[in-house]
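[Automated response] Your request has been received and processed.

Submitted sequence:
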Amino acid sequence: MGKFVLNCTICLLSFGALFSQMLPDGSTDSVDSLINASPKTFTEIHSILHPVRTDTLLMRYFENASAQKRYTQGQIYALNELGRTYRNTSQYTKAIAFHEQALRIANRIDDLEFRVMSLNNLGVVYRRISSIRTAMDYNQQALELAETVKNPSRSLKRSINVSYNCIGNLYQMLKQYGEAISYFEKSLILEAELDNPLGIAINHQNIGECQEAQGELEKALDNYRTSLKFNEEIDNSMGRVICRTSIAQIYLKQDRSEEAERLLDETLPLSKKLGDGFLTAPVYINLGWAQMLQNAYETAEANMLEGLRIAETRRLRDAVAKASHLLSDLYEKTGNFEKALGYTKKAVQVDQEILNESTVRYVNDIILRYDSEKKNNEIQILSQKAEMLEMEAQKSKTVLLIGGIALALLAGIFYILYRQYQLKNEKKLLTLEQSMLRSQMNPHFLFNSLNSIKLYIINNEQKNAVHYLNKFSKLVRKILEASSVREIPLAEELETIDLYMNIENIRFSNEINFKIIVDEGIDTHTIRIPSLILQPFLENALWHGLSSKSGEKNISLHISKDTKGYIHISITDNGVGREAAEKLKKNKVLKRKSVGIAITKERLANFSKDYLNTFHVEIIDLYNKLGQANGTQVILHIPTT
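Generated structure:
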């Protein structure tokens, strides 16, 4: 298929001689003058053709004429601009063909500036269609190549900024928001140095998207508005659509659906005029979301389905997943449980494709390889400098200079040892996070949960099946999202725990009475804790405290705070108690290993390093008036200062 499209593209280009007859008189004069002058840099060519670069007919003429005159830089520029135009109208196959042709020519003439530009353009196209591996390959190659130049031109500096931004976008797609923001901030600093308002606007938008994903809605809104201000200054319609759609999405999350609907209604005509499905699909989907929140289900359904259609046509997998989740919610609200179940399955499938574990590992390997190569180059440079200093020392034979060299070498050794210590700690933290995710997503829990939902389907209890499958898919999504960040708001952790207990309660025939109590004055949205730390303690209470108990089964989760800089989370059950649970555990053939609690304690210890206070876990055996075991209470004392 790829070869067929490429051959078609080449055939079209072969008719370039006809383009001059189709263009208005005089429109090719500037192009012909440019070819005669034959400037070699992107900046020189772009300064002349920037106003007409989206005119595909003129760019095809320029490409054909440049090829005939053997003006390869002009030919590469035209091919990349054709690719960019087709990318911005969601014609990704054509865009890839043009950028690949531009890259082949740049490689052949060994033009580093245009090679970097073509690689970055390919990375952007593949990111648009969620091909993360391929996109990272191209953007990483572009960055490595550009950084080999000691004194880069303004154009090459701009390409380095694009590479930083693209890599940040890929980390954002993988939900590694801390890494993403660090790359966006690097790009933002360099764009400010180059006084490039478009680059500044793009990076503010990207930072806002990461903050929104982390639940920092006000910070995200500030960045979106800053981005919109810069886009208005440069009259960038595409940027206007993206910023307004993002602002509307914040309004939706803040229960301001009417404001969101008004803003999206204003934005939709501009988005459709631009003709880019990448922009239009989210507008339709968010518009449907706003209408659903106002109970306008019929118009909401029409807009969501239109957004889904565009997203599927343009292979926009993130938009497909979002539309499917919203449609599932809509059909559940309107009582169409069969459709709700179908869209839930579709949403889960697309989520799994995007968050593929092997993709995350592959991208991290590439970054580690790049960092390692960069450090090796720095060590080689340091080694060469040391040799030069040693030669000067031998010539001068002064003790002072020799001592200075020895001191420099010692400093280098201490630096290397310190870096090794840092890397060892980072590796330990990564291992803990991976172990934590495995303990949250253990196969027994997944199998038993799905088996319980299957029973509802077999018993023709469609409503219960859809209800719990929705909760199960949301729980899996939340666990995957939380596993990629170090800290999350307490409110998100409580929402995840509530979903987990709902799923587990199916297996206990809904006998568990679970409640969450939050003391007055505690804002769970501002308190941050390590992600996914409460589930192991609740799992212990369920399977060691309550599974063997008859009668009423209760678990309560109580959140309080004090004036000493601690938040206290207590989990209390009325189970059989630790002593009886140990006896029962010894008699069981299949023993459950409680590795999650040990991992959680290590993660809490790591988390507490950034605070003045330290964490501690308190386990209290509860007894009734007769001295009989009456359950267990676990209290987590987590520092906030």
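Summary generated for your ticket: Strands lie at 487-489, 512-518, 528-530, 553-561, 566-573, 616-623, 629-639. The domain at 485-639 is CATH 3.30.565.10 (Heat Shock Protein 90).
If you did not submit this request, please reply to this message.
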